[in-house]
């Protein structure tokens, strides 16, 4: 079996398959990028061309200069995405480290409870979340968007698995130097967990940035909309402004690409680390 995987024919077929898959995946994005420079009439005429016949920047001018709330939607998404990411990095890492290294009563119960939460679809918790936020007056607010998303069972489990394999010798050496459990976690463990934290940051930020379900339930003031919710307002009952939607979508993708580019080196290290342990 190993000889088959290492053979030249297998590698050629694999690269052809990956190339075709990559082209199929990137075609919709290229079309959307092209459509962001087309007038609406050229988009809805049904022709499938990548080079605009009538190149225009009016779509971008419209969303930045004529749509007064677009900047506010972008700001809301950044505030919520960055806050949710930072809080997840902190709390998921603390919970994962406690489950992996500390000894306390009910540790196994909490671990299996977190595993059980992984099996619960997010849609099921949506109505209870709405009722709780309504009861404490957090509907249509930043805390209402941030607090319910500041921990994630999936990444608690991921960090727990990372810390299980963390070298105990480093913790024992730090303990001999006089550090307590918090000091060991903050000054020794957390800095060395950068690959896992980077992978978590990419996934959490992208999940928050693209989140549409929670905002559409708890946000009702247009000034509090996030970008996914704001994009939806370009779709009308009788006409949809696909040219503005495509231009806004291109702006919408930039922060995600920036986050991935910034954490790319650590992200690859995390994937390599996980694969090596497997």
Q: Can you put this structure into words, describing what you see?
A:
The protein is mainly α and 278 residues long. It is 73% helix and 0% strand. The protein contains 15 helices and no strands. It has helices at residues 2-6, 8-35, 40-43, 58-66, 70-101, 107-118, 126-135, 142-146, 153-164, 168-176, 181-192, 194-209, 213-218, 227-232, 242-277. The chain is globular, with a radius of gyration of 23 Å. The mean pLDDT is 86.
Main traits of this protein?
278 residues; mainly alpha; 15 helices; 0% strand
List the helices and strands and how they pair.
Layout: H1 2-6, H2 8-35, H3 40-43, H4 58-66, H5 70-101, H6 107-118, H7 126-135, H8 142-146, H9 153-164, H10 168-176, H11 181-192, H12 194-209, H13 213-218, H14 227-232, H15 242-277
Helix pairs in contact: 4-15, 5-9, 5-12, 6-9, 10-11, 12-15
Query: What is the succession of H and E elements?
Result: HHHHHHHHHHHHHHH
Q: Helix- and strand-based class?
A: mainly alpha
| Largest beta-sheet details | none
Percentage of β-strand residues: under 5%
How many strands appear in the DSSP assignment?
A: 0
**Average pLDDT:** 86
- Uncertain residue ranges: none
Write down the overall geometry: globular
Specify the helix fraction band: over 70%
* Cα gyration radius (Å): 23 Å
Outline of the structure:
The protein has about 280 residues and is mostly helical. Helix content is about 75%, strand content about 0%.
